[in-house]
Each structure stands twice: as C-alpha cells, then as structure tokens.
Write the structure tokens for this entry.
Amino acid sequence: MKTTDAESPMPSDDLMIRYWLGEASPSEREALEALFAEFPELRQKSADLFAGIKASGYSLDRETMAARTARIVASVQVEAAKSVNNSPRKHSSNSHQDAGKRTFILFKMGGVLIATIALVFGFFYGRTPDASNDMGRYHTFATKAGEQSTINLPDGSSVTINVASRVLIPVDYADGNRNVVLEGEALFKVEPNATSPFTVTSGPTVTRVLGTTFSIKRYLNDTVTSVAVRDGRVRVDSAIVSSAQQLLVFDPSAVEPGTSSGTTSRSSVYRLENLNSKKFEFANGVLAFDNVALIDAIPELERWYDVEIRLMSPELKAEKIDGGFRVGSQANLVSILELTFNVRVVQKGRVINVYRRHS
Amino acid sequence: MGLPVAEDDRTLLERISQDDHQAFALLVGRYIDSVTRFAFHAIGTADGAEDVAQDVFVRFWEKRNEVPEIRSVKAYLLKLARNRSLNILKAEGIRDRYKLLENPGLGERGHGDSDDDGSINGERNRPASQWDGSQNPEEQLLNATTIQAALQQLPERRQLVLHLRVQEGLSHAEIGDIMGISPQAAQVLAGRALSELRKILGVFDF
C-alpha cells in the first residue's frame, strides 16, 4: 500500500495536488518547475492525470443543468409571486419567512406542476468548450434612478437600459452565448444570428428572438413581465404564469386579423394587446404615460427622477396621467405635476409631497 | 453606470439575502453541477442526487438571511448536501453508504487512518476493471476514461476526498468539515488517494 519513498527526488502527492491547485508556495513551485524542465514527461503526465480527475465523476449536461436550475428557481419563485400578490402594492419582505416554508411543501406536492413549468432556460451557459470558467459569469451593467445607458454589444446588437435597471451580459457573449438577464426595463435591438438565439431572462420569463427590436420591463417587485415588440418575432416562455396578469405581450402582428401572432406561447394565459408605441419612448429619453392612474405612475416617476413621491391627499390616487415626460431635473418634475394636476408640491430633499389644491 | 463587473459570490450572497431571485438563479446555475456530483457520490443514484440537489438549494434559499456570512459558497452547499444525503441514507437504513459520510469513530482526530476501515470498498459491487496493474500500464493512454476507471477502484471515501480536493478545489479544513475528520486527516487521505491512483495507473510509481 505504501508507495511513498522518502529518498525519492520525486515530489510528494500532496505537493503535486497543491501545485496543480495553485496552492504551492513560490519556492515549492520553483523547485517543481525545475524538475518539470528536466523531465517534461512528468509535467505532461501529471497534467493529464489532474485533468482526468477533474473531468471524472457524475456530471450534468448543460441542458439538464439549465432545466434543473429553472425548476429550483421556479419552486422558490412560485411562492414569492403568491406572497407579493396577496400583499398590498409594495412588496413586503416580512412575508418571506412563511414563504420559504411553504415553498418547500409546494415543491414536494407540486412535482407535476413544477415539472411542466420547468422550461429550458439555457441562459447560464457559455458555448466555448474550453471556457468552463466563464460558465455562468456575467458583466453587469446597471443604471441608477434617473440614469439611462446604451451599451453596444460585440455582434452589433445594442441594449438601451432604462432607469434603475440592471442587465447581465455573459462574459462569453462574443463567442455566441447571447443569453442575457434583465432586471428592470431595457430596449433590445438584436442583430440576426441564426445559430445563436438571443434570449432575455427577466424573473421567471424567458424571451427568445432571432433578430428583432423589442423592450422588456420587469422590475424587482413587479409581478408582471411586459414584453413589447417593435419588429420581428419573439417567443416568450414563463415559469410562473398563473394568470393573464403576470405577462403582457405587446405585439404588432397580433392586432391584424388573419396574421399569425408573433408569439408562440401558451396563449391562453397571455394577454396580447395592441402595440403601444409609448412602450419604446423611454429609449428616446421620454417617460410616457397612456392614461395611467397616478398611483400606478408613481414608481416610474420615482425611478426616473430619483425621488420619493407621497400623495398626501388620497383622492389624487385615481387621477389619470397622460403624455410624455422628458428626462430632466427634479424641479422639472415639480412644475409638470403642478401644471398637469391641480396640486401643490412641497419638496424636501428627495421627498416630494403632493397635496390637492383647494380652490 | 459603473465598469462591468462579473458578479462574484459575495455580491450574489448580498443580493440573495435581499430576496433577489435572479441572483439565486445565477448561484444555482453556478453550483448545481458540483452539488449534484457530490450527492451522486454520496447517494449512488442519479434520481437520489437530483432530489438532494433540489433540497439543498431550496434550503439555501430558506436560510438566505444567514448566507451573507458564508465564506465559501461551495463548501457550504456541499456540507448541506452531505447532511441531507446522510439523513436520507439513515432514514432508508442504507448503512454501508452512510458510513462513507460519517466517520466510523476509530481514531477520528488526527491520524488520517480512519479511512482504512475496509467497510467501504470501491471494488465491491463494481465490475473488474482493466486496470489491475498487470497490463503493462506504461503503454496505456492516460485519458479521462482510463482515469475514471482507475478512480473507481479506490475506496469510496478516498475517491470522495480526492474529488473534493482536486475537482472542487476545497481546502483541507473544508473537506474535514464535510467528511467529519480533521484537516490533517483530509490532507493525508487526499495524498494517499492520489498515490494509490498513480499506482493503479502505473504513472510515476515512485
């Protein structure tokens, strides 16, 4: 059994392991590399041996990994979505203690349900065979409130990131891994590439395209993913669509009778709406509202102007807001609010209090 | 708009602790292969390994308030996988297998000899391998398949330690924590596993 010979000039097995793991000290490394220089075969064979050990054992292929990852994430998201829907507008974080427990039960009981919604996300994995270290690694592009940014990607595609959003681009994007992740809102202009579909994962929703222009919106606390297509076709799959409320697809081809829809999806749960060109206005620096209740417009206004807006008179909530706001200073916002509504605005730092004006 | 930064584990942990599902998805994608592979070593079936992996990540999510404290995500997940596997094996009364994960109790601190108990022997239940040392191994190619076959001749506990050390890159202390032995014992076991592997393969039989 004993194979170690104390007199041998050969390195110990322990040193060999530490060397290949990059844990050897500089002097150990130097000594070993001198030995390798003398016996190149030693280097080659030990390198092969370690590569073999690393490649050994049970391993999942990428598709299986992606599918299982999607299922695991869906099993915790199903609960989160429920707890958000049951609570008032703002996401309440203290409901999560319970949510975690119920998640587990749901997974246990809901094997079938979750298996059917386990889609092939395929988004974590790069394509370069020798770039295994890149797998699942991303460059993050994030904007703050009041900030927008456009990034040009190596394949000629571009992403315009709206305020307070985050886009993750795989580090091996240039090698054909066009599976990006979005939190918030962004407009994507995608260069066609038949061999590398472009996908955007936003929460539980995956949007897949070949070459098109479209925008997606799903902020962290949103329970709805909104996909707007300007041209081309998209395919949208979602892991947690349980009602029409959770995914809105705005699609130009869907409004014309007789034309096939640009989306292939479980359409029974998707609501297709007329294309509203205002969905793309943000990319031109315009925040557009189409007859939206003020209370629903507030999160957007807050993200655009980096402020906190408080409606001090409850009856203001239902007031409708219509038209576009060009990106600008907070002072701008105050005058617009005062002009549009019959209100008085009091600003203290980032906080904007809005009162009904009694005439 | 900062410079692009690859999301490191620390950033992901921070985001996960704030209920960020996308960060969780990234973390699961990053570690599901390692966790499943470990669970397969422990449980011995693909279905069992899948169940363990699912439970481990759901458990991780449930404990997300504590995760920012974690130093090594991989070691933490593999420890969860070890505990979960052990519970399953015990519940099912599969003694032979859970000894793999639980120190048998003889001389457990310090000497690293505790794997030589003979109760877990990788050669049992396995087809005879071509690598019986009598085939002039010098002429054999050293490729992934032959190394895999040779690894399977090692006692399972040694396979597991070598796997944790070389494939997963864990430290001796982390392996000791997972296997229930001292760091020194883990170090000795890994070295022995490699030396035995070399002997089976006939490479540098020094």
